[in-house]
Specification:
alpha/beta, 332 residues, 47% helix
Length: 332
């Protein structure tokens, strides 16, 4: 194992992806079980996500799910990747994370994003619209103020005020600039577009302002990493998610994950095939040796302090085996 990989933290974001033929409740229980297994494998963090009205994702309430994960584990850091701040009042977010930190002190992360609902119907149901994302910097400042006790109102966020919950910004679009100005750690993806990633990281480091939350820039790169005994097996891990993405691009809805064999037997339209093949291209996938080489390249190019792995597939055992193999690379 290279010293570069050895000096890097590896963490996991699990989106609680649903699978064909299985209820959403099973996906949520799988997320909690996976967190326990990854804790034993030595991963640094385990994060959950926020999606609304998506058939292929069960994780709609990240702070609730994070509480279940934290209660089922002992050491691994637990957080969100992320809570979409435009969907919520900053006071409520502060209170939720204050409760989490009070129950599980020193283990909670507050990953924050600026995306709004995927469809007009979801945005309407949330009482939000696309323009709300433009207020993200102000919402973020208000949220952090509730922890610092600097709100201009006479209201106090209980039990958040005075607590220290590490905030992270998911760097979608302008997110990198917001993270730099606020002096916060940044999470950036995806690993398939390395040039765009490097530009975002360079802007972040150039404009970073030290803050009480982070004295120096801290970069987390995120993306899919699949490890298996052969390159072919690793590629098969990518197939269910690649098809779900292709389906969403051509049908407007993001479906549950299908088995890889079902996708391979499918007759696709030319448009579907194009999106599908694109989803299989540029991912980090292969044997331990191949993945170690790719990870070292990414770390050299980005200087990232942490890698957040976001792999999803239909076969749960194959996914856990991939994480075991990745842990063998990162832990030596």
């Amino acid at each position: 194992m290279s010293s570069l990989i050895a000096g890097t933290r590896f963490s996991v974001l699990d989106r609680s992806r649903t699978r064909e033929g299985h209820p959403p409740a099973e996906a949520l229980r799988d997320t909690v079980r996976l967190a326990g297994a990854l804790e034993e494998l030595g991963y640094h963090r385990f994060w959950v996500s926020e999606h609304h009205g998506v058939p292929g994702v069960a994780g709609s309430a990240p702070t609730v799910l994070a509480a279940a994960v934290a209660a089922a584990t002992d050491r691994i850091r637990v957080g969100t990747g992320g809570v979409m701040l435009p969907n919520h009042q900053p006071l409520v977010v502060a209170e939720q994370f204050g409760v989490l930190e009070s129950l599980f002190p020193g283990r909670i992360d507050m990953g924050l994003g600026r995306s709004v609902g995927f469809t007009d119907g979801v945005r309407k149901a949330l009482g939000r619209d696309k323009d709300v994302a433009d207020d993200f910097a102000a919402q973020l400042d208000e949220l952090l103020g509730w922890f610092r006790g600097t709100s201009p109102t006479r209201v106090h966020a209980r039990p958040a005020e005075g607590l220290s919950v590490p905030p992270f910004v998911l760097a979608m679009g302008e997110g990198a600039a917001v993270a730099a100005r606020a002096g916060l750690p940044m999470v950036i993806g995806d690993l398939r577009d390395r040039e765009r990633m490097r530009r975002g990281i360079d802007r972040y480091r150039t404009h970073f302002r030290p803050s009480p939350w982070a004295r120096e820039p801290y970069v987390v790169v995120s993306g899919t990493v699949a490890v298996a005994a052969t390159p072919e097996e690793a590629r098969r891990l990518l197939i269910p998610e690649a098809w779900s993405m292709a389906y969403s691009r051509t049908h407007g809805t993001f479906p549950p994950l299908p088995p890889a064999g079902q996708v391979e037997a499918r007759v696709m339209t030319a448009k579907e095939r194009g999106f599908y093949e694109s989803g299989l291209t540029g991912q980090i996938a292969g044997t331990e040796e191949q993945v170690a080489h790719e990870l070292e390249t990414v770390l050299k190019e980005t200087g990232a302090q942490e890698v957040l792995v976001t792999t999803s597939t239909y076969d749960r055992e194959a996914l856990l085996d991939s994480y075991r193999r990745l842990a063998s690379i990162t832990s030596g």
